[in-house]
Amino acid sequence: MDVAIKVADLAKRYGDLAAVDGVSFEVKTGEFFGILGPNGAGKTTTLEIVEGLREPDSGEVGLLGMRPWPRNPELAMRIGVQLQSSAFFDRLTAREQLRTFAELYGVSSARADEMLEVVGLTDKARTRIEKLSGGQAQRLSIACALVHDPELVFLDEPTAALDPQARRNLWDLLRRVNSDGRTVVLTTHHMDEAESLCDRVAIMDSGRVLTIDSPAKLVRDLHAATHISISSGFLTVEQAAGVAGAEAHVEDDGLDLTFTTHDPARILTALAERSALDGLRVRGATLEDVFLELTGREYRA
Amino acid sequence: MQSFRSLTKAMFLGFVRDKVSLFFTIVFPLMFLVIFGALFQDQGTSPARIVQVGDVAVLDDLRDNAPDSYEALFEVTRSDDLDAAVETVRQGDADAAVSQNGETVTVHYSAADRTNSAVVLSTLNGVVDAGNLQRLQVAAPDVPVTTVDNRQVEDESLSAIQYLTPGLLGWAVSISGVFGAAATLVDWRSKKLLRRLRLAPVSIPEVIGARISVSLATAMIQLAVFIGVASLPVFGLSLTSYWWMAIPVLLVGTMAFLALGMVIGAIARTGEGASGLANLVVMPMAFASGSFFPLDMAPDWLKTISWISPLRYINDALLSVMVRGNDPLSVLPQIGLLVAFTLVVGFVAWRMFRWDDL
Ligand SMILES: Nc1ncnc2c1ncn2[C@@H]1O[C@H](COP(=O)(O)OP(=O)(O)OP(=O)(O)O)[C@@H](O)[C@H]1O
Ligand SMILES: [Mg+2]
Q: Which residues does the UniProt record annotate as the domain ABC transporter (chain A) (predicted)?
């Protein structure tokens, strides 16, 4: 099967608020798909409708060719879900927790212990769930989602509480999962994460999908300017103005001299000719700029 | 089946590691048993305290002829001053002052303590009657006399603990059943665990079945602990031969309470709400079902209410098989009523079941 998820014209209202407002997208089998958007954009609501946890007011969801709502037991074994707020059995240790989930899915406890190792919680195996740190609990929750080797994985802000090291580790894990041909859908607030992991991203705001494409394409299509900085003091204002010409914009804040340009090659060549490359930094547009451009707001964590 | 076992295990571990619920399901009702048991232990067996003024022939005769009865019935102090003796009774330091003048025995008692006065009056009357009867029989040995042979229907050793154990055990099981089911549901729902389980290959019957097994196991633990403690020599519970019939009674009873707890769990949105609502149901039910005092002593309206309380049937049945020694089949009507209650309330609970609050 080619299409893992097919969503058409999904809508969900809570009172006056349109939490999800006409969302459509498709996720292909084996694809790594990201949903981005500011707080309250409707990411979690969309995801939970697709998973079959919430009933849409209108619209169609096809999940592995089936309807997830009302409860579809056939799907249970094939999808793995990490919810935005972790859900655990009270007063069980990390290992007992994971083993219980493993047993629910008919998976061996050896596999559960292996998963515990994969998310780096072996030394916390005997720690009760209430005593785990936020990031540890989140890693356990991800392990619970992956323990039965699902072909389609949903992760709602999986790296939200993780330290940089754990985040990198999780990226590696998710890449491995995805390279095995599994489909991964995640939401995130980290643009670097989306750029690094996702084949395609959907940017949402106010319940609507603003755009869907690969991160690279989105950035390219933005036709955003490139920022080129060198240390201040190597070029006089006149020299800088000469390098910039009519096309580029120059700014000197006393530390850095920054050119904002759509023709970086020309500026860099000119700077090289003058041997003024001290402290050179080149920053191209990122997904962050795309996000900013589309939603009109800074990303808020 | 595997899911059911795993859920049961997880729930049971969560339960035994929760000190507070362990306390409320096991220790708390047991405290009532210990306190009530100690409180009612010696009631009715203490001898009457009387002050004997001068010679009282009936008492002296009893002492000489039947010293054991005399010792058991009376605790006698002697005095020659009637006024002082009456004052002692007025103060409540003695139950009666007794003097005898010829064939007239005079008893001074206080109306302030009706129970003790009644006991001492009837005891003295009995003693005097027995003396009279003996003299009449000596005078006319051919005249047949009628005697009353008193026999208590319960075991001879019947004491407060015999009534308390079944009632408080029923109450304990109602607490763990109602609270357990309500709290688990609300907890798991508010912590989103139920929605997570909804995505797993787990069915509603498996989730509910796990809760049922944990509650049934808890009820059996409660039974064992209660019988164990009440049978200690200090309390002296003595069970009749069909006490084991308490097991099926408690099993169906637990189901009835679980159904009730599931309805409460479906209504309540927070843990506090659930335990408040559960209290609102369990406490009045315990009073209306004779868990703390026999229903015979209750006003009529309370007796009427008791007919709709599942706890009443459990208490009746437990008392019947554990203490009265009735045969096992005699509690079938109660078991039938409990099953009916479970089916009706359980159906309502089933219809009200929610995976989440959204
Ligand atoms: N059960 C609910 N009842 C009422 N309103 C809700 C409910 N669930 C979500 N909403 C509203 O719908 C909107 C979208 O919420 P959603 O959780 O999907 O956002 P999100 O994109 O996941 O945000 P975040 O980045 O904070 O996780 C929000 O404004 C939220 O207040
Ligand atoms: Mg969210």
A: 5-231
Q: Does the CB of A100 have a partner CB in chain B at under 8 Å?
A: yes
Take residue B123 and report the two structure tokens written for it.
């005891």
Kindly list the distances between the CA atom of residue A60 and the CA atoms of A35, A63, A227, B278, in Å, as whole numbers in the listed order: 18, 10, 44, 42
User: Which of A91, A114, A251 has the alpha carbon at shortest distance from A173?
Assistant: A114
Q: What is the pTM of this model?
A: 0.75
Q: What is the distance between the alpha carbons of residues B9 and B208, in angstroms, rounded to a whole number? A: 13
Per-residue pLDDT of chain B (358 residues; tens, 9 = 90+): 788 999 999 989 988 898 888 888 888 888 888 888 777 765 545 678 888 888 888 888 888 887 877 877 788 888 888 888 888 888 888 888 888 888 888 888 888 777 777 778 888 888 888 888 888 888 888 888 777 766 655 544 446 778 888 888 999 999 888 988 888 888 888 778 888 888 898 888 888 888 889 999 999 999 999 889 888 887 878 888 888 888 999 999 999 999 999 899 888 888 788 888 988 999 889 888 888 877 777 788 888 888 889 999 999 899 888 888 888 888 899 999 999 999 999 999 888 887 776 6
Domain borders along chain A are 1-78+151-163+180-215, 87-149, 225-284
- Cα A155–Cα A27–Cα A195 angle in degrees, nearest 5: 60
The whole-angstrom separation of Cα B327 and Cα B343 is 26
Spatial separation of the C-alpha atoms in residues B7 and A110, rounded to whole Å: 19
Question: Do the chains contact at A89 and B10, CB–CB below 8 Å?
Answer: yes
Identify the CATH class of A225-284: alpha beta
Q: Is the dihedral of CA B248, B251, B257, B259 positive or negative?
A: negative
Residue nearest to atom 28 of ligand 1 (CA): A40
- Domain range list for chain B: 2-40+159-352, 48-139
Instruction: Judge if the beta carbon of residue A188 lies within 6 A of ligand 1.
Output: no
CATH architecture of A1-78+151-163+180-215: 3-Layer(aba) Sandwich (3.40)
Using the mean position of ligand 1's atoms as its centre, give its distance from the Cα of residue A207 in Å. 9
Q: How many CB pairs under 8 A join A and B?
A: 69
Q: Decide if domain B48-139 falls under CATH 3.40.50.620.
A: no
Check if the interface score ipTM surpasses 0.85: no
Q: Considering only CA atoms, which residue is closest to atom 4 of ligand 1?
A: A14
Helix residue spans in B74-113 (DSSP H): 82-90
CA count, 13 A, side-chain hemisphere, A90: 20
As a whole number of angstroms, the distance between CA A112 and CA A95 comes to: 8
What is the DSSP secondary structure assignment for residue A224, as one 8-state letter?
A: P
